[in-house]
Write a structure and sequence with these properties.
Number of domains of chain C: 1
Strand order of the largest sheet of chain C: 1-2
Order of helices and strands of chain A: HHHHHHHHHHHHHH
Number of strands of chain A: 0
Radius of gyration of chain C: 24 Å
CATH superfamily of the largest domain in chain A: MetI-like
Largest sheet of chain A: none
Structural class of chain C: mainly alpha
Number of helices of chain C: 13
CATH class of chain C: Mainly Alpha
CATH superfamily of chain C: MetI-like
CATH class of the largest domain in chain A: Mainly Alpha
Number of domains of chain A: 2
Number of strands of chain C: 2
Oligomer: heterotrimer
CATH topology of the largest domain in chain A: MetI-like fold
Chains: A mainly alpha (about 375), B alpha/beta (about 400), C mainly alpha (about 325)
Strand content of chain A: under 5%
Order of helices and strands of chain C: HHHHHHHHHHHEEHH
Chain lengths: ~375, ~400, ~325
């Protein structure tokens, strides 16, 4: 087992660690590690035997504990204390990852399992107009989600990205920049329902009471999405080494071109991840959309006028106010949640592909 | 675009120039993908929308929908308790009137009344009738001088589900005093003699009672606590409350919404709750002491509660606000029910709204309409006598002037 | 932080060499746009704050008789503030170390091919709507915890005030600890995603310098990766905390709330959070009750501001690539 990080592509740089390893002491080879993992697994299995029935949680937890402790102890004896610490870190990191997979897989499994009851063509081609009980679909919800989230992204990404550029590239440590940084922080704390009420109040000023439209929903979500975009982009822009900027300036490239062609492309992978995370943050919002975009039974393509259903509102409605039989509504709720996850998976995939295309060559 | 002579051309062209172009292209692709996903199914939708209206016809087959069909969009907002029933009414009404659309936002009773009074909606759904000052305000909101009226269109029985597998098979009888004692945390164990005295022949286990209440503000809580306040005033001293935590006795377990209460009751042995009768699933429900006997909930028995109650004095002659009577003399009236209103103006400024409101309210109050909400939400039908009276009120709705 | 070394102070580029005014004009437009965006943030927040104040103010001036519950605002919001901070802190405490470990696993331990897939999988989890986490929490996690962990904590850790044994342990598991665990699962993908990106950006020179000195993998991480990523991890944690503080639906669905301050995290009586309380009470509220709920929103605003200000201080004290 090589100790240097696998992500180092040039394998010849790894030799110092390995040499070091061999010179100082014996080494825990792959087979040894395998034995420890196997033994922990068996001990974990033994731990539930007394109670007679399989206890998955105990099995996993005991296995991980024995694995972490066992690795450290064995490495301490066979190898050096430094190696043992390294092994311990590896064991803890790996165990943490395995532990996290448990609830995450459970959540995903729940969504897929329950969502698959209504994962059919009818669900994706029909609306809820005139439907009670069985049947019906979420076509109108998918349309509404795409329109409202699309508009939100259109507003929030330029807004957030330029704010981040200001903070990192222009504002420096000035008073205004610090104030904006603080305000962005405050913005992340706007409870979603308050954002909805604010957008609603804004449109009431323009259009009178009872206003409902997709645009109002998008404005509410923009309030929630922008700070996430700012924060993520800001972080990624700050990571761009100043050497790059200075090299560019030294070549006489104007500042805006340096930002547009050097800084942004270098940070683009991280920024895209941030944007998609931000979309993920708002695409599942329910409360602000209930008060701004409302709920419609049919499809509405016009974000400027009339109610527009989104998938989370659809899920919420079906879960909170089920019609008889309740199972039909609950199935629709889960199918809508599954659809939402699929939409986001598509978004993520697109972002991943884009960022690998856009990433400048020659940088890690 | 790049006019400056660059000393390192390969750098600028390969690594600097192209990413920007790609970024723009990428953004375009994203937008297009989003747009395409939706438009693909456009044709499919328009063709299916008609067909989806068929299933709804079953609930309206024997409909006596009055007059010719209407068209347009009628907007209502208010009580979330009506949300499930409203879906039945929307489907049934739109099946008869294909060009009409009913929109209903379940924003809550108070919000619904406020929106109605500000002119943001044509009718309101509300678990409470208009207060006096709201009635006065409605005279400004509505055309003409007569203001708005309350129509008790939605009656939903509230059951008392419990989770006690040890007494499975037998019916649990509870009087108002014992119910109030349980929810006020005064009766804390199932083997309490007060419970045993009402249920001869049942062996109660030594299990703590876990009373489950709504954690959200709700009309169900208000009606249930109003019941205890009227029927067991000595035990329940908290009055009719909408929010349990803070206003109520504390303790117990809180859960969001009807589904939350049912889930919490089903999860914990020894639990007892209160919830819309149609949603309690497999849980058994207690029989409630009324008029000297014990009565299990049924839609018919709950529907009689409007007949057993007095109409409020001092309102418009067409108004149907009632002070719900939780202690009826007759033992065939189930007293724990939520009565929810539709609030409409007696006069509207234009004919289209009048036509829509009259057509929709007439449908909702009709036998077919009450059956539709019964099928979608398990609500109780209003009695024929009350229906006839309400119809007179609806007939009185007209264009101002 | 950047400008100390960056352009404003550096000699102005030679316009002739750059081909005239394009550079200047472009700079002006770009500067204008970004300044405009930043100013718009200011304006938006001013508008939101005005709205909150205007709508929240009647709580203190209005006619109290409109309220069901006439206790003072402080005694109304106190338990909610406590619950919000307590539950979010618990969630952050659970999520952050695990998230850092997971991010490290993805960036420095897992095989490169696998790491993309793993990161992708975890990112997607950030998008699962909170309603779903709520239903999962009440339907799957709560029953498991109430059967296994909570009775065990009650028996073995009852001497701690968090698990005190003198009260009834929840039988349905809908407690603050359950909520904190669910929130931790919800915010974990956010913290992981940001941390991972930052860890991956560690300059290779730093890592190689460390390796060249014979450092083990863990030593490389401790010496090069973690210091470099500190500010990013804190940013990620703050974004996660922001979500935890403001989370409504999941908390509203899972928690069994009561009115008061409760340290014990495994009973049926739990302090509610501000956001969940708004979600629970708002739909059926009217008049002054709405004003009061909005005023609690304002309080949440202030809490978030305070927490983030502290985090900024910590993050800025660290080390960032732009400092060069």
């Amino acid at each position: 087992m090589t100790l240097a990080a696998e992500h180092q592509p040039e394998s010849d740089t790894e030799s110092p660690t390995n040499d070091n390893d061999r010179i100082t002491s014996g080494s825990l080879a792959g087979r040894g590690m395998f034995a420890i993992v196997g033994a922990s697994f068996v001990i974990g299995a033994l731990s539930w035997l007394p109670s007679g029935s399989i206890n998955w949680a105990r099995w996993v937890i005991v296995t991980l504990l024995v694995y972490v402790a066992g690795t450290y102890a064995v490495a301490r004896i066979v190898e050096s204390p430094r190696q043992a610490t390294d092994r311990l870190a590896t064991a803890i990191v790996t165990s943490a990852f395995a532990l996290v997979l448990l609830p995450l897989i459970s959540v995903v499994w729940t969504v897929v399992d329950k969502g698959s009851n209504r994962f059919d063509w009818q669900f994706y081609s029909e609306t809820m107009r005139g439907v009670v009980g069985e049947g019906g679909g979420a076509y109108h919800g998918i349309v509404g989600t795409l329109i409202i989230t699309g508009l939100t992204t259109l507003f929030a990404v330029p807004f957030g990205l330029f704010t981040a550029i200001y903070l990192v590239e222009y504002g420096g440590n000035g008073r205004f920049a610090r104030a904006v940084t603080g305000l962005v922080d405050v913005m992340t704390g706007i409870p979603s329902i308050v954002a909805g009420l604010f957008a609603y109040a804004l449109f009431v000023l323009i259009d009178g009471p009872g206003h409902r439209s997709g645009l109002a929903g998008a404005i509410a979500l923009t309030l929630l999405m922008t700070p996430v975009v700012v924060r993520a982009s800001e972080e990624m822009l700050r990571l761009v080494p100043n050497e790059l900027r200075e090299a560019s300036y030294a070549l006489g490239v104007p500042k805006w071109k340096t930002i547009a062609k050097i800084v942004l492309p270098t940070a683009i992978a991280g920024i895209l991840t941030g944007v998609v995370l931000a979309i993920a943050r708002v695409i599942g919002e329910t409360a602000p959309l209930l008060v701004t975009a409302g709920l419609a039974q049919g499809t509405n393509w016009n974000p400027l006028d009339g109610r527009m259903t989104t998938l989370p509102v659809y899920t919420y409605q079906a879960y909170k106010f089920p019609t008889l039989p309740p199972s039909a509504s609950i199935d629709r709720a889960w199918a809508a949640a599954l659809t939402l996850v699929i939409i986001v998976a598509v978004l993520f995939t697109t972002a991943r592909i884009l960022s690998s295309i856009l990433k400048p060559q020659g940088l890690k | 675009m790049n006019t400056s002579p660059n000393p390192f051309p390969h750098w600028s062209e390969k690594n600097v120039n192209s990413p920007k172009r790609r970024l723009v292209a990428g953004a375009l692709v994203l937008t297009l993908v989003a747009a395409a996903c939706g438009s693909d199914d456009d044709t499919a939708d328009t063709s299916t929308e008609d067909s989806t209206e068929e299933p709804a016809a079953e609930s309206t087959d024997e409909t006596a929908a009055p007059g010719s069909t209407v068209s347009g969009t009628l907007v209502g907002a208010g009580a979330s308790s009506q949300a499930a029933g409203m879906q039945g009414w929307q489907a049934g009404f739109q099946a008869i009137n294909e060009d009409a659309t009913i929109e209903y936002d379940a924003i809550g009773s108070g919000g619904g009344r406020e929106l109605f009074l500000s002119g943001g909606s044509s009718f309101a759904g509300s678990d409470a009738f208009l207060k006096d000052e709201e009635f006065e305000a409605s005279k400004d909101r509505c055309a003409g001088e007569q203001g708005a009226i309350n129509l008790p269109h939605y009656i939903s029985p509230i059951a008392i589900p419990y989770n006690l597998p040890q007494i499975e098979g037998s019916t649990l009888n509870l009087t108002p005093d014992v119910i109030a004692g349980i929810f006020a945390n005064e009766i804390a164990n199932w083997n309490d003699p007060a419970i045993a005295a009402l249920n001869e022949g049942i062996e109660f286990p030594d299990v703590n009672i876990n009373p489950v209440h709504r954690s959200d503000e709700s009309g169900t809580t208000e009606n249930f606590t109003d019941y205890m306040a009227q029927a067991a005033p000595d035990v329940w001293s908290f009055g009719a409350i909408e929010v349990w935590d803070g206003d109520g006795p504390g303790g117990g377990e809180g859960a969001q919404g009807t589904s939350g209460v049912v889930a919490a009751t089903a999860a914990g042995e020894g639990s007892i709750g209160y919830a819309d009768a149609s949603q309690i699933g497999d849980l058994p429900a207690a029989a409630v002491g009324v008029g000297g006997e014990f009565l299990e909930f049924s839609p018919a028995a709950a529907g009689r509660i409007v007949d057993a109650s007095e109409r409020l004095e001092g309102r418009n002659e067409f108004d149907f606000a009632i002070e719900v009577n939780r202690t009826p003399d007759s033992s065939d009236v189930y007293p724990i029910a939520l009565v929810s209103y539709h609030i409409v103006c007696l006069e509207y400024p234009d004919q289209e709204t009048v036509d829509l409101v009259k057509a929709f309210m007439t449908y909702v109050g009709s036998e077919a309409g009450q059956a539709a909400s019964g099928a979608s939400a398990g609500s109780a039908p209003i009695s024929p006598e009350v229906r006839a009276d309400i119809l007179k009120s609806i007939d009185a709705i007209s264009v101002a002037g | 932080m950047i400008t100390d070394t960056a352009p404003q102070s550096s000699p102005a580029p030679d316009d002739d060499f750059l081909g005239g005014d394009t550079g200047k004009l472009g700079d002006r437009v770009f500067h204008g746009l970004s300044l405009g965006a930043a100013a718009l943030i200011l304006a938006t927040l001013a508008a939101v704050a005005t709205f909150l104040f205007k709508e929240g103010l009647p709580t203190f001036t209005g006619d109290k008789s409109e309220l069901d519950n006439t206790e003072s605002f402080v005694s109304y919001v106190g338990p909610l503030v406590f619950g919000t901070i307590y539950i979010s802190a618990l969630a952050l405490l659970i999520a952050t170390p695990i998230a850092i470990a997971v991010a490290l696993y993805i960036s420095h331990y897992s095989p490169k091919k696998l790491s993309h897939t793993l990161g992708y999988f975890i990112d997607i989890l950030a998008a699962i709507p909170s309603v779903v986490y709520g239903i999962w929490g009440i339907g799957v996690l709560a029953p498991i915890l109430s059967r296994s962990l909570y009775p065990w904590l009650d028996d073995h850790a009852g001497f701690l005030p968090f698990f005190g044994s003198d009260v009834n342990v929840s039988t349905s598991g809908r407690t603050m600890l359950t909520v904190a665990i669910v929130l931790a699962v919800m915010i974990l993908p956010i913290i992981t995603a940001i941390s991972r990106e930052v860890f991956l950006q560690t300059p290779r020179l730093h890592e190689e310098a460390s390796l060249a000195l014979g450092a083990t993998r863990w030593e490389v991480i401790r010496q090069a990766v973690l210091p470099y990523g500190r500010s990013g991890v804190i940013s990620g944690a703050m974004l996660g905390l922001g979500r935890a503080l403001g989370e409504t639906m999941a908390v509203a669905i899972i928690l069994s709330p009561a009115d008061g301050y409760f340290w014990n995290v495994i009973t049926n009586s739990n302090s509610n959070t501000i956001a969940a309380n708004i979600a629970l009470q708002f739909p059926e509220s009217s008049g002054l009750e709405v004003n009061r709920l909005i005023a609690t929103g304002l309080v949440l605003f202030i809490i978030t501001f305070g927490v983030n200000a502290i985090a900024r201080k910590i993050a800025n004290a660290g080390f960032s690539g732009a400092d060069g």
